[in-house]
Structures are given as C-alpha cells and as structure tokens.
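We modelled the chain as a single entity of 150 amino acids. Its sequence is:
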Amino acid sequence: MLSIKQQLHALCLADIDERIKSINEAIQFAQASANEETKSIAGDKLETGRAMAQLEIEKNTAQLAESQKLKQLLLQLDPNKTSTIIQSGSLVITNHERFYISIPAGKFTIEDTNYFAISSSSPIAQKLLGLKVEDGFTFNKKDFVIKKIV
C-alpha cells in the first residue's frame, strides 16, 4: 500500500504527464493547421494563417518546456524521504489544510481528505519552508499551525 505522500507524488506525475501530452497534441494540431493553410489559401491570408499557427506553436512550445522542467523537479523529489523541517518534497499537515510542496498541480482528494500540491515558489510555500512542527504563521489573515511534516 502506498503512503499518502507516495500517492500524491504519483498523482502529480500523472497530472504533469497529462499536461505534456495535451501540449504536444496542441503543437501537432497547430502544425497540421499551418500545413493545411499552405495547401488551401493563397497570398496574404496564407501569411496571416501561418503566422497565427506559428504563434500558437511558440506559445505551446514554451508551455511544454515549463511542464518538462516541472516534471524534472518532481522526479528529483523522493516521496519516501522525511524531514523535521519543511522543504521541497514535504507533505505538511496544518490545522487548516494539507500541502504537498512539489509542483503546482492543485487539489487532490485521497480517502476523503483534500491535499494541495503547490510549488515551492508559491506564496504559501514561501511561508512554510523552513518551519517545524508546532510553528505557526499567518497567511491571508488566517492563522496556521504546523501539525505534522511527512
């Protein structure tokens, strides 16, 4: 049986893999559209269509690079590692929420409990990093206390 942290890690990996797949499909679609423009349109419309397709490809290529970078960051995290101080890869249980400091993947529900996969550069992670169990902090006018670090 996988631990909650291992499950969150696997869910984040599946999320980023799905993002990469979708972006690759969008790039292929834009490329196919550009190729179709070449066959079906002449003159200025051709150039406009090609330029728009090229912009779409460039935008998706940048998103792909960012997603691949996030995947590399995620793969560097060991879901079996524990620490007494919050750092990248920590699962943090507070009096309000549960955070997996990894990549910005959003909310996951495991066994009827919500967990938020967040980037270490997110504002709340910046408040969390370096804290220990029983430390407290305020975020968005809400007082948090660290209950557990996994």
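As a brief sanity check on the tokenised model: The mean pLDDT is 92. The longest helix spans residues 4-40.
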